[in-house]
Amino acid sequence: MRSHEIDYRIYGDDMQFVEVELDPGEVVVAEAGAMMYMEQGVTFEAKMGDGSDPDQGTWGKLKSAAKRGITGEGLFMTHFRNSAPQGKQRVAMAAPYPGKILAVNLAQAGGRLLAQKDAFLCAASGTKLDIAFNRKLGTGIFGGEGFILQSISGDGLAFMHAGGTIIEKHLQGETLRIDTGCIVAFQPQIQYSIERAGNLKSMVFGGEGLFLATLSGTGRVWLQSLPFNRIADRVIANLRHGGSQDEGSLAGGLSSIFSR
Predict the structure, then answer these.
(1) Comparing C-alpha atoms, which of 154, 113, 149 is closest to residue 131?
(2) 208 within 8 A of 222, measured Cβ to Cβ
(3) What is the rounded CA–CA span in Å between residue 149 and residue 107?
(4) What CA–CA distance (Å, rounded) separates 202 from 62?
(5) Is 242 left (phi over 0), alpha (psi -120 to 50) or beta?
């Protein structure tokens, strides 16, 4: 099934949303709860599955929903359709936390990407979403966010969101070592594994975690500067220490150290 050819515009800088323009009958599929606004002619329906296989039966839809549950995503996806008899209609999707929205033409990216399990935002109807387990034992045990990946395939536009700033790297037989949470997506021909973060002292005191992700080969890689888990960890740490108003002072800093 070919993907619908949708148009779009991304608004904002660090708190972005994407507005998708639909011709009559066109559909965009999004994560549940991602919708920001929609025009009068747009109708929506929650469905199990991405709709990429119109002949998929109930059992197939249940398996698709179960896979989404494993990744931590909702069991249902929302399908937005331009049901107006004529004219373009628009629907907007917003990212769930500060960062950037990445638009990728899957046809130009080789037809398939592997992405962090919470990176997908929305895509043209016809895009297939699946899960991809990393089969290496070390990656499975220590990979953290990278153990279960989303497979996004098709020939249309797909939109992903990430924290902070997104940078695209083109590897030419090279190797890149990355914090596991900083990976947004990469082409499937890239080899992905997990390795120790230096010697024992570096692992314990280096502040970079015990393990790093290694991406090697030839292909495209997208990285984010501020993964959501870093934001969450900082907020939780602040709440745990009481969020004292004088934390910025020397006394506040010392009190937070001795209160741990």
Answers:
(1) 149
(2) no
(3) 20
(4) 45
(5) left
Give the pLDDT confidence of 147-200 residue by residue, as tens digits: 678 899 999 999 999 999 999 999 999 999 998 889 999 999 999 887 766 555
Instruction: Compute the distance between CA of residue 43 and CA of residue 147 in angstroms, rounded to an integer.
Output: 36
**CA quadruple 238, 244, 249, 255: dihedral sign:** negative
Q: Where are the alpha helices (DSSP H) in the chain?
A: 58-70, 137-142, 200-205, 228-240, 250-258
138/212: higher pLDDT: 212
Give me the half-sphere count of Cα atoms (radius 13 Å) on the Cβ side of residue 13: 0
Residue 254, SS3 per DSSP: helix
Q: Where are the beta strands (DSSP E) in the chain?
A: 7-11, 17-22, 27-31, 35-38, 42-47, 77-82, 89-94, 99-105, 112-116, 120-124, 128-133, 148-153, 157-163, 166-178, 183-186, 191-196, 211-224
Contact 94, 38 (CB under 8 A): no
Note the pTM of the prediction, 2 decimals. Answer: 0.80
41 and 134 Cβ atoms separated by less than 8 Å: no
From CA 58, how far away is CA 163, in angstroms rounded? 36
DSSP letter (8 states) at residue 67: H
Residue 51, classed as helix, strand or coil, is coil
